[in-house]
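Exercise 7. Predict the structure of Nucleoside triphosphate/diphosphate phosphatase from Evansella cellulosilytica.
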Amino acid sequence: MRFPQTGSNIIVQSYKHNGILHRVWEETIILKGTSHEVIGGNDRIMVQESDGRQWRTREPAICYFTADHWFNVIGMLRNDGIYYYCNLGTPFTYDEEALKYIDYDLDIKVFPDKTYKLLDEDEFTLHKQQMNYPEEVEIILRRSVDELISWITQKKGPFEPGFVEYWYERFLQYR
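Solution. The predicted structure, encoded as tokens:
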């Protein structure tokens, strides 16, 4: 698999199961790019929704994408600590256009004290029916929720103390 080069500026695109473009983040600077993981940084970037709405992120963020797991993690640096927004979705792919993944609705929000909340189960149930998610996908996603919660409680990967801060310092060197 191809992967973005360190220091390059890429677009991130999420899709829904039916192939429709869901959301586009205008720019993310690649801090580490391998065939297995991509770590990027951005700050106050424009986000385009599929319905045409646009909004700007409010704070610096470190994004963690993996080719081996069905989730990605965004660590947002706020005044009162680091918040994480975790998207359940396919492992990433990358082409010259963008880093891409399919978003499967379920999200986990993690607070600075490492408590967390599973979000959007109703949206998942609705889209599962509307888009006919295969049973195998649902099984993978439920396992991935458990795996992600395990990472959070074990402080593994992007939840490891100092991870977001380290990559944020690297991000500042490219700005």
